[in-house]
Design a protein that fits this description.
single chain; alpha+beta; Phosphorylase Kinase, domain 1; five-stranded antiparallel sheet; three-stranded mixed sheet; about 50% helix
Length: about 325
Amino acid sequence: MLEKIREYLKEKRLIEKLQLQEPFTIEFLAQGEYNQNFVISDGKRRYVFRLNYGSQLHLENQIRYEYQALKWLERTNRTPKVYYVDDTREFFPQGLLIMEFLVGGPLDYRRDLKEAALIFGEIHQQPLDEEVNNFLVKEQATILAARVDECQRLLAPVLTSEFVPLQAQRQLADALERCDKNVGQQRFFIELDQWSVNNTEVNSHNFIIGKKGFLIDWEKPVISHPVQDISQFLASTTTLWRSNLVLTQTEKQDFFACYLQATGFAPETFEEALRIYHPYLMLRALAWSAMAYDSYQSDTKELKNQEIFEKVTSYLEEDFLRQALRERVFE
């Protein structure tokens, strides 16, 4: 793969376009469920070369969607700059893009909550214009219904799986029924009419914290109420995902206070938004985990990550699942 990337850069004359000096290196960086990332470096300049293997939003052109989102988000100065996209799938069978390599490390929940609040604040306060409204998925009228539809798709193979434990199937089916029954609560968000661009995948390793903080991995942004990002950021399934910790009530309250200060959102209104939305967020997180567990066990995953498999397995344990499906952000 590394040599193929080198050949591609030469064929497309990207060495010159990116102002890379010979000799330059190409190294594997990281891999998730839907993307592989490599670092291109000549010692002075570094770039991320990203290959896409699927679309969680079921888009025909996933990589173009991500490229457009990153281009639009550059105005926030809190996301990586993007330089190149190729959605032809001629040289590689995957779509690909090249973006800025950001120096830093993943978010530390014990140290970086204030910085995270500022990052969210600057992104969520960015006014929506005609450009972004024309290409991003919009959930203004369906913020809860969209989660129910998504969970129904995710759970379709789970509820007939020979691998997912029956207790987990029952708990997830019951939670889906509860959420479906309460979907009329989305009227709250429609009447509030407070929308922003949401990342929707805000675990600690999708932040880069250095001299300044950034939010990366924009494969599935949507226009929705900002509660979608904040609910996910504070969820136990998110903080446990790569950092193996659960935030205390004090930590969550301190983060929330910083976020409200950065955005000017009304505390009571946002707390009500969290109360309504969080059960849907938790169901989505756990439904995805069950789907991933089933696909790993049935060997239908194109990209595999052992750490992810171990985590989703733990999320399906009976006691954890019961507690997570009843979780509230603020007790």
